[in-house]
Amino acid sequence: MVTMKEIAHRTGVSVSTVSLVMNHRDEGRVKPAIAAHVREVADELGYQVNPMASSLRTNRTRTIGFISEEVATTPYAGGMILGAQTAASKLGYLLITVSTDGGMDEDDEIDALKRYGADGFLYAKMSNRVTDVPARLKDCPVVLVDATGRDGTTPSIEPDEFRIAYDATTRLVEAGCERIAYIGCSEPMLAQEGRLAGYRTALEAAGRKFNERLVVDVLNNGPALEAVSDLFDWERPDGFFCFNDARAWYVYECAARRGLVIGRDVSVVGVDNHRVFAETLSPRLTTVELPHFEMGYWAAAKVVSMIEKRPLDDLDVPDTRAPLPPLDAPVPAKVHCTLIEKESVRAAG
Amino acid sequence: MVTMKEIAHRTGVSVSTVSLVMNHRDEGRVKPAIAAHVREVADELGYQVNPMASSLRTNRTRTIGFISEEVATTPYAGGMILGAQTAASKLGYLLITVSTDGGMDEDDEIDALKRYGADGFLYAKMSNRVTDVPARLKDCPVVLVDATGRDGTTPSIEPDEFRIAYDATTRLVEAGCERIAYIGCSEPMLAQEGRLAGYRTALEAAGRKFNERLVVDVLNNGPALEAVSDLFDWERPDGFFCFNDARAWYVYECAARRGLVIGRDVSVVGVDNHRVFAETLSPRLTTVELPHFEMGYWAAAKVVSMIEKRPLDDLDVPDTRAPLPPLDAPVPAKVHCTLIEKESVRAAG
DNA sequence: CTGAAAGCGCTAACAT
DNA sequence: ATGTTAGCGCTTTCAG
After folding, report:
1. Are residues A171 and A246 both part of a single domain?
2. Which PANTHER family match (chains A, B) (predicted)?
């Protein structure tokens, strides 16, 4: 391992000078020629800072902890983690992911993260929920991902559920569907409330009236298929907005059994059909992809801005907003999802 | 943060003594009474070692790096990571995961891991492939996960593909299926070869003869559905062994369109139907679950044994082998997958 | 059996 | 503008 000491030795300056240069804290403190030489030798030797050693003095490790209890049980975690890691990496941080599903104890894992000196934390859910920040994270920089804090005390990022449903439903309207159904989720979730409202509002904006009988809220189980089946038989919808991929599947199954072809006889807009699934289905499906990557990305950038106490705008975060693509977009069209970024209500740390 | 210095102060001994005790290196070096007292005070104060500080002297961080390029694009990574993290955590290590899909450069990510002093590495694929170990990992402890090294130089763990297919096919035979099809994968993969062989051998062991026309190797795309559809019409199979969940889906779709009920008219054994998917489908499906968790678990334990240069048996690793459950197991039956653990051909480090 | 002292690689006051 | 010094928390000889 090549150390500052070695560079100091080779360049004939002291370690402190090398330290200044390597941390870009020269600028009027070290003669430019010297600084350049130091940098050159460092490059040549392939010098890399030892984050352990510097953390000992600075109490900063340039690591951020990512905590989620659903890494193993949902296919969406990967995208979020990748987004967070991408931003972290770009900003010179390392993301350390711990999942607390299975037998893992959340507090233990958080302790491990703290022991290793994480500078900040991402606390992630895999579907928008009101969430309490764990007690031991109370006075650390924390950002919630795909979740919203109970008290408005913690910054968060979450999908604009209302707009997802509004856009999806509008799309079905514009595609000429007359009887648009919503296959929702019967568990209480922010996503469900927001989407039902968006569906309803879009219908009304299009001059349709909301029909309760076209709304079926189901769980992910056997009776769900019957419920959707009944909907097919009794209401004969020609368009479906589906809460998620599992719900969309009930529609495919029912359609297949009746000889109906999706894209011809009925239209379906689903949310977040996962890739494995979508590869098979996508030719006949319009999807709203929840921007897990983007949420992770933003959250990581945000927590870095909190750690370094500088405005988020100084960091390079792409804008994830994009307009709804036109209806004649190639199939499978992707309806882009907008995001809601919440600043902490109190000072963001 | 509570330090050794503080404990030393409170107990009236020196830091070195505290160090000995905390590292369980007392035993004939520190008087038992003193040791006990030190431990007591440490507990009371909630002392935690500072891994940064000790790494400075020992060049050990008790972290292991997990590298994969498919974290975001497959739903299976989560289980593997969770397994690895569980074992790591149990053994007092922290798992640091980096994914190299998306725009991430693998070498950069490995460098980051090395900079942070990872003691060993897990290099994971999400489906069994012959794999080269990255150059910069050459002289570090490395274990391959769901992959096999090109030269037998690196320990690895991978599913027993032959037996997966053998067991699945046998199960279909025992369930009374007469015409058992294999919906395979047309890409060259170890998994495909092994499974085709297992399918064939199981048929022959049951006194059936292998019929090429019952084998359909497909990609994950449009033509696949037609190929399976043709198989239904021309060969009228009553049992299906499917390479993975996407392939199984073609069978469901074809069956639904023909009014055939799975579990009554046709039997299906799939591999690795992911949970999101399985929640909807599982009542009618027998699955072979690839033991991603167990692979991750074993691999992490293995790499720790390499790092600490002590035999794997000293560590607490559960045996993941289990017998095939009986055919009258409640549906969905899970066919357990056996694993192949490969030691390095040369000395294991 | 226990403590003093040195040093891991780095940063940050403080001198020059 | 650069070097000296001290010390972060811990491990590890080496003396006693």
Report:
1. yes
2. HTH-TYPE TRANSCRIPTIONAL REPRESSOR PURR-RELATED, LACI-RELATED TRANSCRIPTIONAL REPRESSOR
Say yes or no: A115 contacts chain B, CB-CB below 8 A.
yes
Question: Which residues does chain A have within 8 Å of residue B99's beta carbon, measured at their own beta carbons?
Answer: 78, 81-82, 85
Dist CA A26 CA A35 (whole Å): 7
**Through-space distance between the first and last CA atoms of chain B, rounded to whole angstroms:** 37
Reported as type and span, the H/E element at residue B158 is strand B156-159
CB B271 within 8 A of CB B288: yes
Domain at A133, CATH number: 3.40.50.2300
* Residue B233, in any domain of the structure: yes
Distance in angstroms, CA of B325 to C1' of C2?
60
pLDDT digits (tens, 9 = 90+) for B159-207: 888 988 998 898 888 888 899 999 999 988 888 999 999 999 999 999 9
Kindly state whether residue A190 falls inside one of the protein's structural domains.
yes
pLDDT tens string A145-192: 999 888 888 999 988 889 889 988 988 888 888 999 999 999 888 889
Residues of A in contact with B219 (CB under 8 A): none
A118 with A215, same domain: the answer is no
A348 inside domain: no
Please compute the mean of the pLDDT values over residues A26-36 and round it to a whole number: 90
pLDDT (0 to 100) of residue A284: 56
Does one domain contain both B125 and B232?
A: no
For residue A349, being part of any structural domain is answered with no
Residues in chain B: 349
Residues B281 and B299 in one domain: no
A81 contact residues in B (CB cutoff 8 A): 71-72, 97, 99
Is B89 at the interface with chain A, CB within 8 A?
yes
Q: What's the mean pLDDT when you consider all of chain A?
A: 85
Interface with chain B: mutation pick from A85, A119, A289, highest number of B CBs within 10 Å: A85
pLDDT in tens, B284-293: 567 777 888 8
The gap between A69 CA and D9 C1' (Å) is 32
Question: Which residue range forms the structural domain that includes residue B215?
Answer: 161-290
DSSP, collapsed to helix, strand or coil, labels residue B175 as: coil
Using N-to-C axis directions, what is the helix angle for B4-11 and B32-45, rounded to 10°? 120
Q: Once rounded to an integer, what is the mean pLDDT over residues B91-98?
A: 95
Q: Is the pLDDT score of A107 beyond 70?
A: yes
Task: For chain B, give the percent of residues with pLDDT over 70.
Answer: 87
Q: Is residue A265 exposed (0-12), middle (13-18) or buried (19+ Cβ within 10 Å)?
A: exposed
A132 and A201 together in one domain:
no
Distance from C-alpha of B241 to C-alpha of B264, rounded to nearest angstrom: 16
Q: Is the CB of A9 under 7 A from strand D?
A: no
Total domains, chain B = 3
Contact B52 A52 (CB under 8 A): yes
Name which of A71, A81, A277 is nearest B82 (Cβ-Cβ): A71
pLDDT at A22 over 80: yes
